[in-house]
Amino acid sequence: MVHLMTKPLVKLERDGHVAVVSFNRPEKLNAWAWGPTNELCAIADELRFDTSVRTVLLRGEGRAFCAGEDLKPDTDDVEERHPGRSAAERTHIAYERARYCFDRWKVVDQLPQPVVAAIQGYCLGAGLELAMLADIRIAATDAIFALPQVTLGTQIVGGADLRMVSELGASRTKMLAMTGRRFGPVEAERWGLVQDVVAPEVLQQTALDLAHEIANNAPLAVQGVKRAVNFVAYRGFEEAAKFEAMASSMLWSSDDLTNGFAAKARKEQAAFEGK
């Protein structure tokens, strides 16, 4: 019997002291789901204890960094995506999923090694959540960012908005998260979401060069800088994460969310009623 090798959803390669972690669903613009989450976090668990790795480069194969959550091609049905026999059970399951997301992404967010993200094309929803797990973000001139969750009737689940507060400020974060509007790399750099913008053809090399530049420095000192800065930047994050998980979980039983997903399937604007 011939066993076919399954393509990894997230792959790990090494370039000297740099670990290159690539989202590997280019045919779906690296749309995100539980499978890639589990693979990414398994890689992070491995890298956490690998002292030969001094920097991590986070990137996406193909035309996009990550186009957002994988909305299954055959259905946008909310009940199938977030099951429950009652509104209470649906809320309970959604809360546990949100807590799980925070718990698992923490292993990436709190890697001892600095993480550099190379962002091209779409970086939407879950893609921006992933980008915010990095310490430094480099964008190509074709990058497109957005947090479109409110246009579907839900809110951010994985903490991107909470992380953005320390990078962009509270009011800017509210504007982006409350409108769901798209913005480009020029605005992203001006607001502090990305630290450099380069041409698409040099993005990967620029990000890799930066990762190597950091890796050439004393690793324990570099990791100390990351811990000290993060202590200030993310003070209160754990408490806010619990609140966000609970607040978002209740929305999965709302009529607005059901209407929002159905309207998206029809490529229409939902008429939200606040119920």
UniProtKB/TrEMBL annotation:
<comment type="similarity">
    <text>Belongs to the enoyl-CoA hydratase/isomerase family.</text>
</comment>
<dbReference type="InterPro" id="IPR029045">
    <property type="entry name" value="ClpP/crotonase-like_dom_sf"/>
</dbReference>
<dbReference type="GO" id="GO:0006635">
    <property type="term" value="P:fatty acid beta-oxidation"/>
</dbReference>
<protein>
    <submittedName>
        <fullName>Unannotated protein</fullName>
    </submittedName>
</protein>
<dbReference type="Pfam" id="PF00378">
    <property type="entry name" value="ECH_1"/>
</dbReference>
<dbReference type="GO" id="GO:0003824">
    <property type="term" value="F:catalytic activity"/>
</dbReference>
<dbReference type="InterPro" id="IPR018376">
    <property type="entry name" value="Enoyl-CoA_hyd/isom_CS"/>
</dbReference>
<dbReference type="InterPro" id="IPR001753">
    <property type="entry name" value="Enoyl-CoA_hydra/iso"/>
</dbReference>
